Amino acid sequence: MGISKVTGIAATAFLVTSVSLCEMGMRTVMLPFLVTSFVAFIVTIASHNAINLPWILGKNSVGRFPLWSIVLFGPFLMLARAYAMAKRYMRKEAVHDKIVEGLYLGGWPFLLKHLPPGSPSVIDCTCELPRSFFVPADEYLCLATWDTRAPTPCQIELAARWACQKRSKGKSVYVHGAFGHGRSACVVCAILVALGIAETWKDAENIIRERRKIKMNVLHRKTLEEWSNHRVSQKKGN
């Protein structure tokens, strides 16, 4: 289920709850539910595939949220972090897996032990989760993307080049989303192609699947195809 559907259902539930509390005369109690419903409806619209505005949450290039974002979207941001943490402990899978030497795919590293060994450079594909304090800003690339959505072809190309530069310097690279199944896997596919390990993104997807359970959807594959076609056209132009 896409993020816009999940937040839409949650927004409706909070709205119904606030109306019920209001009818019961509990107007003070209803306010938090009403505010949370309003925020959830904004996220629902902004995360819809036809609109897709991840920047609305305000996450900047160093993975931080400004004060206005914390005030406006606080309920959503807190719920997103709580959900990611709770689901981490409920899952039996590894936080991350080594896809090839020097390239890892996994989930949001909210604890230092979640990072792969060797102080890797980090590509963060989330728009709803912050950069952890132990990840250096100069070894960090933010590709703010909604859950279940895909980075743009330009973002994918930026990440592929950035990862290749880091690998050329002997640095390992860790690509993560919330759990390392969709948007981050999409980026790793492109990196494998850029590194020359896979000939096509489809080959790269098969390589990843041998090492980690992923859930790339139609949008991820469509975006990778667009990126791949643009990459081929650029090579022909040169």
UniProtKB/TrEMBL annotation:
The keyword Signal does not apply. Keywords: Membrane, Transmembrane, Transmembrane helix. The keyword Glycoprotein does not apply. Gene3D superfamilies: Protein tyrosine phosphatase superfamily. SMART domains: DSPc. Residues 98-230 form the Tyrosine-protein phosphatase domain. InterPro entries: Prot-tyrosine_phosphatase-like (IPR029021), TYR_PHOSPHATASE_DUAL_dom (IPR020422). This is Tyrosine-protein phosphatase domain-containing protein. Signal peptide: none annotated. The chain crosses the membrane at residues 29-47, 67-84. It comes from the Eukaryota.
